[in-house]
Write a structure and sequence with these properties.
This protein is mostly beta strands. The chain has one domain. Helices cover 6% and strands 41% of the residues.
């Protein structure tokens, strides 16, 4: 009998793919769990935070070693400035998915456990980044700051999806099917920016 696979990645962040590895009629569904290969958040804040024995503004700090992720939509300031914004970067290893697999659905799942309520957009990243190096000031080597990313090509300007995240202790999901399909046919898999 032909098999179809349902892939579940992550813990508090997950990517669920429904794939048909064999295009035969009546294929069986199978589950597989994978963890994200990289996740971090970046902050635009001028607030000072401790990094080892020195204090730095958050916009120059890498948060890849933190256990949680953060998305906060701050306020616009002046010409292109963002105050108190945080955005999350997340990437999954899709190399186990055959390029000829038929992706029926792919959903990015996030668990909301704080009091913040806001619209969260998912944008496909177009440049590679490092979990232990990315900051707001320098998201990746050779990239412009995040606020320059819209026009500088760090990520796709048009969101893959947007939804209001309001209730505490609840899972939310975004349809990322087309992004995953693009990654499987040759577009770089640089993950998403939320």
């Amino acid at each position: 009998m032909a098999r179809r696979s349902l892939l579940i990645l992550g813990c508090l962040v997950s990517l669920v793919l429904v794939c048909c590895f064999d295009r035969a009629e009546g294929a069986e569904v199978q589950e597989k769990r994978l963890l994200p290969v990289a996740d971090t958040f970046v902050s635009s804040s001028y607030l000072m935070t401790w990094v080892g024995h020195e204090r730095k503004q958050e916009k120059y700090v890498n948060f890849g070693g933190n256990e949680g992720l953060s998305v906060i939509r701050g306020m616009m300031a002046g010409a292109g400035g963002f105050l108190y914004w945080r955005g999350t970067l997340i990437r999954f290893d899709l190399s186990e998915i055959p390029v000829d697999a038929e992706i029926e659905e792919a959903r990015l799942h996030l668990y909301h456990y704080s009091v913040w309520s806001q619209a969260i957009s998912v944008h496909r990243m177009t440049r590679d980044w490092s979990e232990l190096e990315a900051t707001w000031f320098e998201p990746c080597r050779g990239c412009g700051e995040w606020w320059q990313g819209w026009d500088g090509g760090n990520y796709v300007r048009e969101p893959t999806g947007t939804q209001w995240v309001m209730e505490i202790d609840r899972w939310y999901s975004w349809d990322v099917t087309e992004d995953v399909k693009q990654s499987l046919v040759g577009s770089p898999n640089c993950g998403w920016f939320l």
